Amino acid sequence: MKKSKKKTIAFLRLGIILIIIAVGAVGLTGLFSSDQEGTSPEFAVTIPERDFVRRVLTSPEGKYLGRKQVASFTSVGDIMYHGTQITNAYDSARGAYDFDENFMHVEKFFNAVDFAIGNFETVTAGGTPQGYPVFNAPDEVLDSIKNAGFDVLTTVNNHSLDKGRTGVLRTLEQIEERGLISTGTFSEPEEEITVLESDGIRVGLIAYTYGLNGMDSLLTPAELSYMINRIDEDKIKKDINKAKDQGCDMIFVSLHWGNEYQMSPTSQQEQLAMKIFEWGGDVILGSHPHVIQKSEIINVNGEDKFIIYSQGNFISNQRRETLPSISARNYTEDGVIVQIKIEKDMVTGKTVLKTVNYTPTWVHRYESQGRLRYEVLPVKDALNTMDLTGQTADKLRQSYENTVGKMTYYNREIR
User: Fold this and answer.
1) What gap in Å lies between CA 285 and CA 306, rounded to an integer?
2) Residue ranges of the alpha helices (H) in 188-314?
3) What does the DSSP assignment read for 316-329?
4) Is 30:36 a contact under the CB 8 Å cutoff?
5) Which pLDDT tens digit goes with each residue over 238-258?
6) What average pLDDT does range 59-88 have in this prediction?
7) In the CATH scheme, what is the code of domain 68-411?
8) Distance between CA atoms of 234 and 238, rounded to whole angstroms?
9) What are the residue ranges spanned by the domains of the chain?
């Protein structure tokens, strides 16, 4: 009788253990499939262990993130304002400038992402606006950039000191007044680097320039040491380590470098890029040559990294009509909107490139109502939807072929 009772108790214990294992298995399945269609993350609160992991997958605001989270970015090259652009944007009736039409065809690409980044290659120093060779754009350009959906401007390039210290400081003030983020130039020493954060994903953004057109002496040595990020391997490596210390999941590096009007990067650029990737950088966004250069996916220590050596001109007055002596003048009207998605596993903390795509653009300059107008056109959309014929359509097709021929597409989902 005692022996039979022991067997019964043993069977009961075994049954209870199996039930616990089964419930645990269901719980884990529900946890790690909560992003799939037909499952509810709310089920996670019914089991204490899953509730703990749910808190890990929750933003500081209490929003449930799911196991996989994606952050999206766009980036464009040089945003420049030459004298002709400035003059033709002036509305004498209102006594003000208006640049909104520059971006009306492309703003949808910037409003569709978490962060839209552009290289602001001018200053807003106040006073009389002027173009090349000493740039000083009206404040209204920042209004139009903001209205178009940009979130972040890199402000470090060879024209950062065109209006000296005042130009650097006032440009940063005007950018901040409009709620935009800037990096690359600074009003005071910065202990931390710029971080772009979206739903639990932190991306560090650091930016540097090769030089300042010989205007370095407009700042004292002390000011130069912190106000302008110049390309220096030790500094870049140090800033990458700062980004890691600040808990960044990925690090984007903006570099104003290379040779103007050259269709390919130099070997020195390629060598520096590899060093940056080995130090821990993940994405390199290049500018300055005013023409588009190649993009690549490079695997470093088992991780895919992305670089585009030059994103071309996003908007400027550099074109075949204004650069007759430049052999690459046909390509200075070309730009590209780089579209990047990164994905973070919120359980393991691993973050990877998810997709890299591109929207080729072209600066359309034409005369209407007695003035020149400038519009950045998304080339493929423009060819399909706008009534463009003759030379304009031919230029668009040539621009598209030139751009896509240099781009490397990436999609982790179908690899």
Assistant:
1) 9
2) 221-227, 233-245, 267-279
3) -S-STTT-TT-TTG
4) no
5) 999 999 999 999 999 999 999
6) 89
7) 3.60.21.10
8) 6
9) 68-411
